[in-house]
Each structure stands twice: as C-alpha cells, then as structure tokens.
Design brief:
With about 550 residues, this protein is α+β, with helices and mostly antiparallel strands. About 25% of the residues lie in helices and about 20% in strands. The strands form 4 sheets. Strands 1, 8, 9, 10, 11, 12, 13, 14, 15, 16 and 17 form an 11-stranded mixed beta sheet that branches. The protein has a 4-stranded antiparallel beta sheet with strand order 4-5-7-6, with helices on one face. A two-stranded antiparallel sheet has the order 2-3. β2 and β3 form a beta hairpin. The termini are far apart.
C-alpha cells in the first residue's frame, strides 16, 4: 500500500493556538502532584463534563430550519470519497455520499445502500442493493456504480485510495444480479467488511466520475452521490454549500435543514468568536480549543462531548537510535504523568490513555476487552522507569518532532522532556512547520533524524484491530517499522467471528502496549458546539461517516 497525502490528516491542520507555554512543565508537574498523579478516566472535569458518559445524540429538533452555517478547521482538499481521509473532508462528505453500510451514531453498524449483506463463504461478500435509490441527477443507483466505486479503490487503482488498507484482500468485484454485487477476497478479511461502513464503502456515479476525470471531487468537477444533501457549490477559498435532497431514499433522514453552508475559519479565536456571536451555528473540534471555557460558559451555544475513536500518541519514527529500544520507550512512559497532560494540555477535556485503542472501540465485545484493558494503568512510576534503564546507554539524545504553531505539541513535549530528564533521558524537540508536518506521514526522508513525532490518530470502525493493524510489515503508517505483531494481526484480520477476533486482538494489544511502538497519551472525545437556535447534530465520531447534519433542526 502507498500512504497518501491526507493520511497526514491525523495531525491537526488548523492554525495556531495563541496561548503561551512558558513554565508549563513546572505547572503541570505541580498540578499532578496535588492530584496524586494517575487518576481514573471517570473523574469529573473542571468543564463539568462526565467523560464516562460521552454522548451519541443531542436533543431532537423541534422543527425544520431554512439554513445552518457550520465551520470547518480548514478547507477540504477533495470531496472525492476515496480521498477524504481527514476531518474536514469527511465532515462534509458524510452528508453527501452514502456507503454500502452505515456507521450509526451509537457506533454500531447497520444497513446503508446495501439492504442486505451475505457471506456465503469466508472469502465472498454479497451486497443486495436497495430498490429506488437515485443519484442527485435523478439517475438510478446500479450495480455498475458499486462495482466501479469499489474497483477504483482497489486493484490497479489501490495506490490512489486513501483507504487502501481496507482493500488489500479484494481480488475481484462483479455484478451477480439485477441488484446484487459480489466481492471476491483472496482471504477472509474482517476489516474489509467493516470498512464498507466508512468512506471506503462510499458509492459514486460511474458516469459522472468518468466524465469528470481528474477534476472529480474538486471545486471545478464536483461529485455525484446519493446522500441526504446535494453539493450545491464549492467556491475555493470561500465556502461550500450543500442543500437538502428531497428525494433521499432514507425517509427517516430527509434533512430538516434546507441548506448547510460551510466556512473555513482556521484561527481558533476567530472561530470561537463566530460561534459565540451566532455568525456560525456549529463546529466539531477534535482537539479542545484554547477558548473552550468561553464556549462552555456561553449562554448562546451548547457544547457536547461525544464518543470518539481519536487518541493522541507519540509515534515511533525510526528503527535505529535510542528510542528504538522498547525499554527506553517503556521507561519514558513510566515517567510521564498522563493525567497531567489531560488536565493541563487538554484542559481536562481528555482521558489518560493506558492503551492506544480506548473503550469506544469495543462494541459488543466489552466483556473481552474490558478485563484486558484494566490491566494497564496510567499512573507514573519513576522508580520502575529508572530500573528499566539500568545498564542502558542513555547518553544519546531522543529527538521528537513537534508541529509548529501547535501549543498542544509544545506543551506535551515540555512535559515529556521534564519527565525524561528526571530519569536520565536526554530529549530534544525539532519544530516542523505546520505546512511540512504532513510529510512525516508520507516521506521517510522527512523523518530522517527523528525518533518520534506527535499525532492525533483515529480508527474508522468499532474494532480495536483497526488501530493495531497499523503494525504490519510494510504498513503505510508503520513509521517505526514495528512488526512484532505482524502475524497476529494477519490472523486476527482473517478471523470473522467477533469474539475469536477480540481474543486475538487482546493479545496484540498486550504486546503493543508492552513494546510501545506508539506511546499512548490521551483519548480525545468529539467536541460538538451548536448555537442554541439549533439542535440535533450527531456528537459521536460517527459524524465522519453518518449524515450528521440531516437531523439538525430548530431548537425552538
């Protein structure tokens, strides 16, 4: 597989936060000492949010509304579903392009354009399409459109898809009936089946995409899908307008809003002021903005914290050097107070992470994942850290890349530097301009001389394996070349029984959490802000796949 530019979407593209960071390490360490360190994910926060009760719905709308304004943290690079592996892109596209299946607000998976999915054997998946579904131009959805959409993400076109990891087992796709499409796999693949509920499974018009060619998904070429909203206009650098699809096939999700207009306000202070003044009706935040207290205390907006797959981590970036030693990584993690990072850097709007994949990934396998999860804690243990480093050469520097203009990166790095220094590790930082930070995901040369870098990462489906499948030989996002779980990941991915796959994934998680190719720091809830004149938006991470704007309406 080939990593594509928006795989860098896991890192924040929004512009700078303005807060100063002088003395943050000292302040954070003092705070954590008062708090006793560690702490549980269930603590009440200073924002009066119970992070054990993250939302999947907001109050139901009381009626329709003519128009809604919504802000994106940056302008999408594309609206072509196979090039939307990013926050802003999928925030828009989830309302425009339906997938074969649907990730629901409660993070379960249900029917989408395919009303039925059958697996006559472990390597064959048959999709029965709904009758009467039409694209916005009135042409009917056909099996040919589905075959085209899957083929352009797999096979010879796989290198062009930002969701390529879900298609590695696809051997062929064919129409097998008037409303049936059959996918043949080279081996059983649980992640392919689940991935069809994301933009990986989005269906576009074959005729329209073929005619648009390379312009498909751009402001010049547009797109053609079957979603709850239609693309009305995209004025580059200014905004995107989508309008209600009155002929939408899902009568339960025909939009209550006639129009949604997206702006691209990247500066957080400006965005927060626009939300408070009512110039903008809503926004999703994937990192808590500096002015979140202003939003929480506002009488004009409501802030909701939702279930999420997002986590903040320090990703290993090299197969050599001091940080390539698992003992060094474990010692560093043992010295870090993750509660302090959650409290200070993330303003108490994050949860200390003992593992990479958090509880919102567990789905109906909680009984297997929870006992394994509770074996790992987040309380720092400097004594154990020093013991791990006994006999280890700690004279070489560990270089961590941080994104320029990101207070989150800088503050976290300061905390980690202080923690590392306390146990004898020499940690330096290298500031990478925001415009170049994405290259760390795609270009090994950009990672030269780096031991690790911060990333805000998320999986796409309700299965922890979706996170751990990163660590495979030759994996596009396996930046540090960690392959100790390669075979186990392959075995788990080929295991279609959910409970059996969960047991294998528990073993993978244990090994990854021991070796720490990526260092878990915090889990980040979805932060949804809505003006009090509207309600109904979906606050869970499903907003990246589900038509979240269809349920927005008047709050009065």
């Amino acid at each position: 597989m080939r990593t594509t530019p928006t795989s860098a979407s896991r890192v924040r593209r929004a512009s700078a936060r303005a807060s100063a960071v002088a003395g943050i390490a000292v302040a954070a360490l003092a705070l954590s000492a008062c708090a006793g360190g560690g702490g549980s994910a269930g603590a009440k926060t200073g924002l009066d949010v119970d992070l054990t009760r993250l939302a999947t719905r907001t109050a139901q709308a009381k009626g329709p509304i003519d128009a809604v304004t919504w802000n994106l943290p940056y302008e999408p690079l594309s609206l072509d579903p196979m090039k939307t592996f990013n926050y802003a892109e999928n925030t828009v596209d989830a309302n425009l392009c339906d997938s074969l299946q649907r990730l629901n607000p409660d993070l379960t998976t249900g029917p989408g354009l395919a009303e039925k999915v059958e697996t006559p054997n472990d390597t064959t998946v048959v999709y029965t399409l709904r009758d009467g579904v039409k694209f916005w131009d009135g042409t009917p959805l056909t099996p040919a459109d589905v075959v085209f959409s899957i083929e352009r993400q797999s096979g010879a076109h796989n290198g062009d898809s930002y969701f390529s990891e879900y298609f590695t087992s696809v051997q062929s796709v064919e129409q097998t009936g008037a409303n049936r499409v059959t996918v043949h796999l080279s081996k059983p693949d649980a992640l392919f089946v689940q991935g069809m509920a994301t933009a990986a499974g989005a269906i576009v018009s074959k005729a329209y995409a073929t005619k648009a060619g390379e312009q498909f998904g751009t402001p010049q070429g547009g797109i053609m899908c079957t979603g709850a909203f239609k693309l009305d206009s995209w004025k580059a650098g200014k905004g995107i307008d989508i309008v209600k699809n009155d002929a939408y096939w899902d009568k339960n999700l025909v939009p209550k809003a006639g129009k949604v207009s997206f702006s691209f306000i990247a500066d957080e202070t400006t965005a927060i002021n626009a939300l408070r003044s009512g110039d903008v009706d809503g926004q999703f935040f994937y990192l808590p903005p500096t002015g979140i207290q202003q939003l929480t205390g506002s009488s004009t907006v409501t802030t909701t914290y939702g279930k999420s797959f997002v986590f903040f981590t320090l990703a290993g970036a090299s197969t050599t050097g001091p940080f390539a030693d698992p003992k060094v990584r474990q010692a560093l993690l043992d010295s870090i107070d993750r509660q302090a990072i959650s409290d200070v850097v993330f303003q108490k709007a994050a949860i200390p992470a003992p593992t990479l994949a958090g509880p919102d990934y567990w789905g109906d396998q909680k009984s297997l994942f929870e006992p394994a999860f509770t074996k790992f804690g987040t309380k720092p243990d400097p004594g154990a850290a020093k013991q791990l480093l006994a006999g280890v050469d700690t004279s070489k520097e560990i270089t961590i890349a941080i994104q320029g203009s990101s207070a989150v990166h800088e503050q976290t790095a300061n905390l980690i530097q202080a923690a590392g220094q306390a146990i004898g590790l020499k940690i330096t930082t290298k500031v990478i301009p925001v415009e170049q930070y994405g290259n760390l995901y795609t270009d090994p040369k950009a990672r030269a001389g780096l031991d690790a870098f911060f990333t805000t990462w998320y999986g796409n489906v309700t299965d922890p394996l979706d996170v751990y499948q990163v660590f495979t030989t030759g994996g596009t996002n396996n930046f540090g070349g960690y392959t100790a779980v390669n075979d186990l990941v392959g075995q788990a991915r080929s295991t279609l029984d959910p409970a059996a796959r969960a047991k294998l994934t528990v073993d993978i998680q244990a090994k990854v959490t021991q070796d720490l190719p990526w260092t878990p720091l915090t889990y980040l809830p979805t932060i949804l802000v809505q003006n009090d004149r509207i309600t109904g938006a979906v606050p869970s991470i499903a907003y990246l796949s589900y038509p979240w704007a269809a349920t927005i309406g008047s709050a009065r």
